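How it folds:
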Amino acid sequence: MKKYVPLILAVTAVWIFSGCLPEEEEPLDAPVVRAAEVERPTTAATARGDLVSTVKITCNYRPLSEKTYYFPVNGYFVEAVYVNIGDDVTAGQLLAELDRSDLLEAITEAKYDVRQQEVNYGRSGYSSAGAKQVEIAKLKLAELQNREAERLIYAENDGKVTFVRSYDADTRSSSMENVVTVSDRSVAAYSVGFAGAENIKEGATYQFNIGGVEYPVEAIADENSYLFYPDVPIADAASYGYITVEIARSDNALYVPGKAVKQSNDGFVVYTLNEAGLRQSVPVKVGLRVNGRAEILSGLEEGDEVIVE
């Protein structure tokens, strides 16, 4: 057995020594170096279409006739005003009145006196003296009633109240003050002055917008304004409306989004991407700008992509 001992020791030593050696690591893959990723800007294609620039012109309601009411007497307390702005009134309707307390009793007595004189006239056998007394009594009554009428305001025509003066409890009447204004509402008419309406053409047809509803109207020139008569029900007529007027137009225009056009020292430019994906400026000539679009008169072709953002 002794002759095998060295061999066993040698094998054991080799095993122990080999177990202490570090394991061989697998080689790692080389890192991949990539070009920096660049976010592509938003672009839009140059296109064609009709560009139309418009302006809204406000027109105010214009009554064809208007009646302004005054108290013709001064110094009496205002008893009441019975209407408000916007009220519809009819002919003969009581609109306002002054204090009549000093007249009412006198009128009652005058009416009684007329009846009494008429009775006396009959009893006198219809004498001329009796007739004279009847006439005097009637004249006195008429005078009182005329004085009363001066303190009452009645509407002379159907219409809508467009003005009402406000009074305090101790306010007295003045013959110089407008109390109530009533406008004729049989036909809805609107107007706009020539100043500020240079783009309106006499005889042209426009769309008249009242409360979101459009009515075709013709522009009719008056002395210093344009008149419009939309076929709107009087109940729906508002205090104002507007028409849309075309002020500029370019049909089949070449255009890009307006925000793609930038100001430069020499005019205007847009930015595009070259074949390498880099930005480049392109000088352009700009025409009509409307509704977020800019007309391109030169510098681009239809389909060219421009940078928007």
Notes: The first helix runs from residue 5 to 20. Residues 67-183 form one domain. The CA atoms of residues 97 and 152 lie 4 Å apart.
